[in-house]
Amino acid sequence: MWLKWFPWKFLISYAAKRHGFLDPVVLWSYFQRFSQPSEVAGPIELIRDNIVFHSRGLINSRAIPQNSDWIWPYWIQRQFNPSDKSFVPSAFSLTYINLTHRNWTAAGLPGLGYLPITDPAGTVTPHWDGWSLDFWLVDKNGNVQASSKIEGKTKQRLCFFGNLAVVTKTEFDSGKIISAVQVRQSKGEYVCDIKLRVRSSERLAVSLRPYNPEGISFVHTVKLDNEARRWQINDKTSVLFDRRVDNNYMQRYADGDVSARLADKSSETQDSVKCSVGMATAAAVFEPDENGQLDMNLYIPLRKQTFFGDRSSPKGNKPAGKALSWKDSLKGRCRIIIPDKKKQRLYETALRSVALHTVGEDVYPGPFTYKRFWFRDASFILDALLCANLSHLAEPVIGSYPSRQKTGGYFRSQDGEWDSNGQAIWIIHRNWKMKGRPLSTDIFESVCKAADWICRKCTNPDKDSMHAGLLPAGFSAEHFGPNDHYYWDDFWALAGLHCAAEIVESSGMISKAEKYNNQAIKLRRAIDASIEKASAKLNQRAIPVSPYRRLDAGAVGSIVCGYPLQLVEPEDSQLLATVEFLMNNCRVKDGFFLDISHSGINPYLTLHIAQVLMRAGDSRHFELADTLCRLATPTGQWPEAVHPRTEGGCMGDGQHIWAAAEWVNYIRSCMVYEQKTKNQLILGAGIHPDWTKAGEVVSIGPAPTLWGTVNLTLRFEEDSVSAEFKADWHGQTPEVVLKIPGFSQKTATQEAGEFKAERIND
Could you tell me which Gene3D superfamilies the record lists for this protein (predicted)? Predict the structure, then answer.
């Protein structure tokens, strides 16, 4: 109790003023005035993550500026180059952070959790948040050619014929280096396998770098055991060579980068180095054969590791799962054939990205920055797995939900986020409907506890306020802004109550179903009343992100009522007014630009808008999809947010799995989607006019839906389209509507058969 009355605030304020600092107590009070009063000022997880993030940025600011002669990674070479369009002035910046090229691609095996990443220049980070390996050509004078320092001569692709491999090819003046990074099992352990092919008369240098795409990662000691053909790093990790090292050079931070030693002909090889600063570098040099060729392999054993902050895992930190083969992982997947081969390949790539980041009972939104579990991201990622007929990957994660739930029924990702309960119930319901199987007892009870929590959490509906009856103010998704009464949270809670009511009613629990339905009615009335007040206040129909905000980019959260939740009709005037505001005021380079937090073009939210437009019959969704197609990296990935000028990643993980999941679902929706409000299965609503030329064939299947699994093949002719439709229903049969743009609308109710639609001539 003494903590409550002891004058901590006075002491903190006095100490700050005495040393010339701003009073943190006063500063915090002003900080809180920008948000609505909330029981949680901000998630402790976010505060912790930002401290870690900016601590690294502080180290970066000490290491980078005065060491311009070092060979730095791709993002630093550009962000610190005043002649580059990526240049970011660092005046008054205490921390230096990758804000322009947050792009990387993971390799791995599905189910395993080891995710080595490769940056756009081919620099490989084998361990999560660890050191990296770079590959250089070194001429006879010791001059180094590094891919991170040259522009436009590096090509990269993702190969997935068999294993998944990130392949990087760099053309230098004196030759080329090709690397292929994959994860495989070798002698009973999993390794990051790097295959190198060098075609040059110059020497190859495999360089150990004390950094990764986020910045500095400390290397204190390096030891070479040439008999064992191995580097030992920090006495914990190692790099294995498939041959003896011809020359080995090492350097402490005080003596500069090891690249400088390669030009010193008097330099002697070393077997070890120790650096108290943690910036030791090393270079293992290999000679090509007389034909200027060198093919070799590096193996990095993938050690067990924990990921900071992954506290939502039901059994604590799980360093690695059980690996699946790619064949088993993707067995039975929903296949899509469309004439646009780039979009089709992006679908296949996105599907593999989603599968790769599903690890037993966990699903990760990214391989590096976001390698942890959130219910929000999981709901969209798991939905993509279900829609792609990969429920065998999704169900272990969903099955873990009861163990992730708090005693009071709260599905907690971070304190102050009130959307997670609705999201958890929604995805459980989606899986239940698509599979057509009864829920297990623990899942059923978990749904009831979660719905009861929502009922208790809603505020007093009788209060005369803009937020009467809504959920309390909370942090919600970080891309909305400070604590507020976000409609995003309320729409998710409303969907969760509807889903819970249907689940319990199917088990004969009528009174409980009535409870959830009645609470849903109350919440819907509260939402509608709040939106009407906000609309009157702003004198417009668009829905702001909260009743206390004017229209801004955060309003993108409010369109969740249309996609994916379908709480309103596709033609709802307020939904479409919101999308119209976003299209007219928040587009940059034909993508949705979110200036709150992300400060970039957001791929997954762009696709949310595209889904709403498609369902409303608005062809502008094609423009948004084409933008995403253009912004995809050469390996078929999207960062969380794209820098509008460099078109590199500027926020979040460089390989964002929510974005990949949205691409899977967007392409699927172009072919097949459910319109729950009308009990309709819509076919072909997103078929691009270019796909409808005579002779083209478009197909999808097996595609799970809420009513069963379907297969669809469309064959386009000069004046018509023939649709071959097969369905395996497991419950109520929907109305099946063929709705291809440019063709007459047709309805079919048969379980299997063919029907035709005529082309409409303008």
Answer: 1.50.10.10
Q: Is the dihedral of CA 632, 634, 640, 646 positive or negative?
A: negative
Residue 482 pLDDT > 90: no
Q: Measured between alpha carbons, how far is residue 748 from residues 96, 314, 541, 687, 720 in Å?
A: 59, 45, 36, 18, 16
Close Cβ partners of 622 (under 8 Å, ≥ 6 residues apart): 688
Residues contacting 136, CB < 8 A, separation 6+: 71, 144, 145, 146, 204, 205, 207, 259, 283
What gap in Å lies between CA 621 and CA 277, rounded to an integer?
52
Nearest residue to 359 (alpha-carbon basis) of 405, 296, 313: 313
> Could you give the CA distance from residue 609 to residue 513 in angstroms, rounded to a whole number?
32
357/360 Cα distance (integer angstroms): 10
Alpha helices in 548-672, H assignment, sequence order: 573-585, 603-615, 621-631, 657-671
The per-residue pLDDT for 42 is: 61
Q: Given a cut of 80, is residue 29 above it in pLDDT? A: no
Q: Give the pLDDT of residue 45.
A: 65
Residue 647 is encoded by which pair of tokens?
């078109």
d(CA 329, CA 662): 20
pLDDT at 478: 78
> How far is the C-alpha of 154 from the C-alpha of 176, rounded, in Å?
10
Residue 209 and residue 218: Cα distance in Å, rounded? 9
Predicted local distance difference test score (pLDDT) of residue 308: 46
- Cβ atoms of 395 and 439 closer than 8 Å: no
Is residue 317 over pLDDT 50? no
- Rounded percentage of the chain residues whose pLDDT exceeds 70: 90
> Cβ distance 472 to 454 under 8 Å?
no
CB within 8 Å of 578: residues ≥ 6 apart: 542, 543, 555, 558, 559
CB contact set of 75 (below 8 Å; sequence gap of 6+) = 86, 98, 100, 101, 102, 119, 213, 648
Q: How far is CA 387 from the centre of its chain?
A: 18
Separation between Cα atoms, residue 75 and residue 211, nearest integer Å:
11
Return d(Cα 669, Cα 683) in angstroms, integer: 8
Q: 209 forms bridges with which residues in the sheet?
A: 132
> Which of 282, 317, 298 has the alpha carbon at shortest distance from 116?
298
DSSP string, 514-543: HHHHHHHHHHHHHHHHHHHHHHHHHTSSSP
Torsion of CA 403, 407, 411, 412, to 10 degrees: -100
Residues facing residue 230 across a β-bridge: 225, 240
On whether the CB atoms of residues 73 and 132 are closer than 8 A, the answer is yes
Delineate the domains of the chain, giving CATH numbers in brackets.
8-80 (no CATH), 105-301 (2.70.98.10), 326-365+374-678 (1.50.10.10), 681-758 (no CATH)
> Can you give the pTM of this predicted structure?
0.94
The helix or strand, by DSSP H or E, that contains position 190, with its residue range, turns out to be strand 189-200
Closest C-alpha among 655, 659, 654, 651 to residue 50: 651
